[in-house]
Amino acid sequence: MRRLMRECPQVKLRRVRSIRSEECAAWLERAYTTPSQRKKARVALSSVFSTAKRRGWCSENPIRSIPVPHIREKSISILSKEELTRLMHTAETFNGGSCLAPLAIMLYAGVRPNEVERLCWGDVRLENGRILIAPRHSKTGGARHVTIFPPLARILQRIRRPDAERICPPNWRRLQTLLHHEAGLTAWQPDVLRHTFATHHLATFRNYAELQLEMGHRSAELLRTRYIAMEGMYHHENSLLVN
To answer: Which of 36, 43, 46, 164 is the most exposed place for a label (fewest CB within 10 A)?
Structure first.
């Protein structure tokens, strides 16, 4: 919204009830250069008008009549078996193996990078085969349990630490970057492990609803469009989660 105000300063001079959809469309077009940016700004602006309508400041939300920008999704990249082997082998010894647990949880459980940073070993319930993502740790604010599949269970049982310790080591983000370079994975994408998990999970279990619960998504549509590498789904061995 700051960008909109900067590029279209006349917005600040207008009464909310006098603003029309044609003007909003023109402002979005002027302030943002890509369909993705316009889509996000459209959502934010719609929220503002919805609040204004509830409070009686305007009679309608003019954003509702503006078409949602069409976004052509990029192809999803996942790590190959060779890249995964190289990454996990490097993590075994890099910095005393301190990076192995968070990498394994992202790869074999699909947990978000920011969620992993908030986890402690006490959240890992090996006896129940689950990792607890508490509301305070979750991106969406809702709690969920993720499955500890056999490959992850073997790793976590071997390197288990006291409950109070964090999963991620100090300086985790810097160490993670160094680890990627050490493993020869310089063109790293932040969610590539999560995408790899999602693709292998769907290829193995063929169940969108179950995968949606594991990933913590409110809609399966996001999985279909942003997380699954459909074109490479069967070019990889589907044993990542079950062997």
So the answer is: 164
